[in-house]
Design brief:
Layout: H1 2-10, H2 14-18, H3 21-31, H4 35-42, H5 47-53, H6 58-65, H7 67-75, E1 83-89, E2 95-101, E3 110-113, E4 125-130, E5 133-139, E6 145-152, E7 157-164, E8 168-174, E9 179-188, H8 194-197, E10 199-206, E11 211-214, E12 226-227, E13 231-233, E14 236-242, E15 247-253, E16 258-262, H9 266-269, E17 276-281, E18 284-291, E19 294-300, E20 308-315, E21 320-323, E22 329-333, E23 345-351, E24 355-364, E25 370-374, E26 394-398, E27 401-404
Antiparallel strand pairs: 1-2, 1-25, 2-3, 4-5, 5-6, 6-7, 7-26, 8-9, 9-10, 10-11, 12-14, 13-14, 14-15, 15-16, 17-18, 18-19, 19-20, 21-22, 22-23, 23-24, 26-27
């Protein structure tokens, strides 16, 4: 009974108490709350509060910084609202990042995120999100390397990893270990004799080890013409892939490190892949089909492979770039002539019964908009990555301060503020 009363008193009021860390500590002492119950309460608190609570006491800091607590907190992240990161380019091709809280206040709660990059980095592409981390990708001027940035915008910390220059790079967090992984895929074959000449090399980088290793089994067995953008749900990375004569979905299990394929309906398998698009709808995989201004959305049942259900059909000329947690699609819309090269676009949420509402006041080029949903996480809060000279360099940045940097790129930096993240 005492435990229940404590939960009722403290959990709903953590925001008010969080404004005064001293008051929170006194409140805990007044109730003489056992430490294990304090821990259970804190697992349910938002990341912003937990980062502040690290300064309350050494015991709390040790608890919050522990890998066990970070993993346990990740299991409770569903109690917090999801966030939507919108990336877009302005008329002078400058990249912008804006974060929205996806709750009843949407789109009022917004944060502007600014990345200060090395002189040689002109463009970062948003690959996707997994368990609260965002993954951005850049190809260096050096043809032998590429760069991946793993970013936790809520705690303002990022990791930079040099990766082998392979055609396809993807990312996911193992939900069992909370260990981020980067996957690099390379294929080669002879068009005249595909069956016997096909070869595939897959390398996996785990953040905990700071090393790359080559997978020796469970590799793709068919040549893939094109990997379209990745989507991560739970422990699976998904791609829509184009084979020589049809489309299918390929998945990679981040936990077991196995590839699998998912067959599509005949109408989707033979359709032109540029009219198909994978997305994440809540915690499930969604397939979007757009033919002659008719949008059809299919969703794969959670945890059930090869089971797509048609959700809805919308007549619209606008492209869907993501979904709110409610399931409402977010679309690119414009008041200009869509055929005009200089047409400017903005984002709007489409509600089936209301039409377009909640217009997101950002303006960008039509091909630059990307939307990624992510949850709160403490991942990257405490990082100790060993630099591996043989397998690539790793850099860690926090609040603009360089904690560790690969020596091969030291000369590229105009200042130490590599990733300077400003929340407005």
């Amino acid at each position: 009974m005492t435990t229940c009363i404590i939960h009722v008193l403290l959990v709903p009021n953590y925001v008010e108490l969080g404004s005064s860390l001293a008051a929170l500590k006194i409140k805990m002492s007044e109730y003489e709350i056992p430490f294990h119950i304090q821990e259970d309460i804190m697992k349910r608190l938002p990341v912003k509060s937990l980062v502040q609570f690290r300064s309350v006491s050494k015991a709390w800091k040790c608890l919050i910084d522990s890998s066990e607590f970070i993993a346990a907190h990740s299991n409770h992240c569903h109690t917090q609202p999801q966030h939507l990161l919108v990336s877009y380019e302005d008329p002078i091709m400058k990249e912008h990042y804006v974060c929205f809280v996806d709750d009843d206040t949407f789109p009022q709660q917004r944060s502007v995120l600014t990345l200060t990059l090395p002189l040689s980095v002109k463009y970062l592409r948003l690959l996707g999100s997994s368990h609260g981390l965002l993954c951005l990708y850049h190809s260096h001027h050096n043809p032998a390397t590429k760069m991946v940035v793993l970013w936790n915008p809520l705690i303002r910390k990022s990791i930079v990893v040099d990766v082998p220059k392979q055609p396809y790079v993807c990312f996911g967090v193992c939900p069992l270990t909370c260990d981020p992984k980067i996957i690099s895929i390379y294929q080669i074959w002879d068009e005249a004799n595909i069956e016997t000449s096909f070869r595939c090399k897959v390398m996996v980088y785990t953040l905990s080890s700071g090393k790359w290793r080559t997978l020796s089994s469970n590799l793709p067995t068919k040549p893939i013409r094109h990997f379209w953008l990745m989507v991560v749900t739970d422990r699976f990375i998904y791609w829509l892939v184009e084979l020589p004569n049809h489309n299918m979905i390929m998945s990679f299990d981040v936990s077991d490190e196995k590839f699998e394929t998912i067959d599509l309906l005949d109408s989707l398998a033979t359709h032109h892949p540029t009219d198909l698009h994978l997305s994440k709808l809540r915690d499930s995989l969604a397939m979007l089909q757009n033919i002659e201004n008719i949008l059809t959305v299919w969703m794969m049942e959670h945890g059930v492979q090869r089971s797509f259900t048609k959700l809805f059909i919308i007549k619209t000329p606008n492209q869907t770039v993501g979904f709110r947690n409610s399931g409402a699609p977010i679309m690119k819309v414009t008041d200009d002539d869509p055929d005009d090269f200089d047409a400017r676009y903005k984002l709007a949420v489409f509600e089936p019964n209301l039409g377009y509402n909640n217009v997101i006041e950002v303006s960008g080029s039509p091909i630059s908009f990307e939307v990624r949903a992510y949850m709160e996480t403490l991942l990257l809060l405490v990082i100790d990555v060993t630099q591996d000279e043989d397998n690539g360099h790793t850099g860690v940045w926090s609040f603009g301060e360089v904690m560790k940097i690969g020596g091969a790129h030291m000369e590229e930096f105009a200042s130490s503020e590599y990733l300077d993240i400003i929340c407005a």
